[in-house]
Amino acid sequence: MSLRSRIALRTRCRRLVFSTFYRDELTRLCNKYGTDKGTIAYAQHAYSRHYHRAFRHLRDSPITLLEIGLCADTNSRTAPSLAVWRSYFPKARIIGFDINDFSHIEMYYCTTIQGDSSSRNDLHELGQINGPFDIIIEDASHTSTHQQVALASLFPYVRPGGFFCIEDLNWQPKDLESGAIPKTRAPLRAGHFSSPAITPDESSYLSEHIDQIRFFNSWDIGVGNKDRTDALAIIQKRATLAA
Question: Residue ranges of the alpha helices (H) in the chain?
Answer without folding.
Answer: 3-21, 25-33, 48-55, 80-88, 120-130, 144-154, 185-190, 200-209
